[in-house]
Structures are given as C-alpha cells and as structure tokens.
Amino acid sequence: MSAVAVGMAVGLGHGLAGFIALVCSILLLLMPRSWYFNIFLITSGVMFFSPATGSLHVAASDLLLPLMLIGAFINRSGGGTVNRVLAFYGFMLASAAMSAVYAQLHLKTFDAYLAISSQVKFTVVILYLVSVVALAPRDSRSLRSTFRVWSAAATLQAALCSLNLMGISVFPGSAYRTRGLFDDPNLLSGFFLISIIVLLWAHAVEPVPELLPSFTILCLGLLAAASRSALATLVVVVIGVLILTSSQFRALKAYIALLALATLAGGSAFILSAGEIPAVERLSGAFQEVGDDSRLSLWGRAVELWQASPFVGVGPGLYPLYSGDIMGISGRTGTGFVAHNSFLTLLAEQGLVGMLVATAGFVAILRVIRCEPARDVRVAMILGVTVLGVQMATLNLQSLRYVWIFMGFVLVWGIGSSRPWVSTRQPMDRSVA
What we know:
This protein is mainly alpha-helical. It has 17 helices and no strands.
C-alpha cells in the first residue's frame, strides 16, 4: 500500500513516466500479488536511470522495487546465487571506491556527485538482478510465460514506435528516429533486440503462436529507431537463428527468407522511386559517415585515460569530465559525453581491477550457458549475450535495467541444475526444453 500511495503522489507531476507510475500503482490495488512480478517486468522497459542526466526517472518499476526486495527476502529462493550476486556487487563497489579514492588524492579532476551517482545507478540495477533471481518462476513453462509477458510489452511499444515510419510520432522525439519510452533511440533499440532474444527463448522452450507477428513488429521498431549498430546486431541474430537452431524454428527460418527477399525488393523500389522514409534516410546517410563518427574519438579518449591510470582508472562515473573537448558540453549534464562503449568506460574509470571483477561475473554467466543441455535454449542465451556484447561495444548499457534482468533470467535458468556454483533449492523442470 505504501508503494501505491507513493505512486499516486508522484504520478501527477512527472509527465509520461509519472502517468505510467500512477496507472500501475492503481492497478496494484486490483491485482493479486502473484502478478506483481509481471508488472515489475513490464515497467522495466519504460524508464531507467539515464546515463545522460544521471537522474532517477520515476516509473512504476522503481516503485515496485522495494516490494520485490521484500519478497526476495521473504521467499529466499536462489539463495546461493543471490549471495554470489551480492559478492560480485561488493567487489565491484570496492573497485569503484578504490578508483574514487585514487582520483580524489592523485588526480586534478574529481566530482563526488558523478562518482556517487554512478554507484547508485549500479546499485539499483543489481537490486533488479537480485529481485529476478529470487522471484522469477523456476519451472520452464512458468518462465516461458514470463518471457511472453516481456515480449508482449516490448511488441506493443515497438508497434507504436513503428508508426514513425509512416510519419506518425506517438512518442516524443525527432521525425527521423523514435525513442519510445526511453531517452535515446539507441537504448530503445537495445531493448527491442533483447526482447527478440527473449521471444526466441520462449519459443525454444515450447512453440509460441505469436512468434512471427511479434518478431516482425519488433524488427519494425528497430528500423524506426534507426540505430546502425542495432540493425547490424539483428543481422547477427538472424544468421544465428538460421544456422544454429533446430527444426523447431523452421517456420521462422522460412519467414526470415521471405522477409529478406521483401526487404531487398522494397529497398530497390525505394532507391528507384527516390522515396522519403526519414528513418531509412537517416540510416543511409549514417552508414556513409562511419569514418567521421565522433564515437571513435570518444573511444580513443577512453584508451588514453586507461593508459594514464591502468590499474584503478580515473574514478567511477568521471569519464565525462575528460571528454568535453570532443563533442562539447552537454546542456543537460554540464559535462562531456559518455564513451559510448561499456567496456572502455569500465576500463577508463576503474582500470584493470574493475575489468577483472566484471570479467569474473561474465564468466559465471557463460558457465550457465555452456552447461545448458537444450540446444535451442542454449542458442537463445548465446545470442542474448552476443546482443548485449555488441551493443555494449557501441553504447553505455551498464546502468540499464533490461540488461541485468536478462542476465538474471540466465542465472534463474541455471539454478535448477546440479552445478556446484548455483543453488539447487528449487530444481528447474526441463521436460519441455
């Protein structure tokens, strides 16, 4: 009830995100508690800690987070895995503290607000990860249903975003690129990509009837967001589906072949008719300007900062203090821009120590995937990690909820196994996988 009261109180004064918080808070009064996790999951694709503003956007998922944590404490499921997640968080926090102390004592440039806010963001997404590991369903069919809830919410947002291709802007943003319910079209694209993976994962467990229409709409949403890296990543996902999946995906494979032919024909018609679709025009121009992309300069600066302080970096969240001369000063933050590369950001800000801790966490995810016996499920998880890896190479995704929620689902899937490093308290039913 307290979360509902807070949602109603703040919902009236925070625009679209506040309206969503208000509606979801009211719905909580009418819904059974078993539905809280699905509402929590749906709203995670609405708003997030913005890397650009460093501020917390009010959203229903954030209001539900305390309830999720209370449930995680009471439920105590996945205890061994939760403890390992918290241990990972502790090591990352220690690495950040070491970097911050070094920056304050030995470097001329330091901003306590940026350093602290970066760790607050990280703390929030870790709490999301803990909530998923503790509260997500354990049996494969229930988890499949959860995946379908996620993909349905993403499909709805993608359907509204795709109207941008016809010149109809449902969400705030430019005519050339939709940003949906996110602050940035590229981050929206990452959400659509990982939602495609979640849809494929659900189908790998047991065929889902909405596979083809949802896949189509999510792809249209990607096109409307007009992200070069996202579309390139989609090609990788499609190739992976065509080559690696079993006959259970035969319908999707045939559909992809038809889509490829239709795309080729449509692209040729667009070129011959000199048509004007803003998102397509943006992409065609952007691909011709890759060599002039300012991200290359931002990446170079990150490497320079790492070379200047290779072991502990220049301080958590402090990279923008060193990038103001590349793209200018952001009017929203008063600092330079982020590195647009999660790996280089970590390397520049927390050095080799932070990178080593993060790598250990990534290896734990890979161990779950490697030991998964079901071929199509394993392929879906591999493609998901690939999507996140490629997107992280061009964007700062480390503070986005959907990244950590997906990794939480990977860990949940591994909880039922007999591997020694994960909890086996509630075995996973793999009969349909």
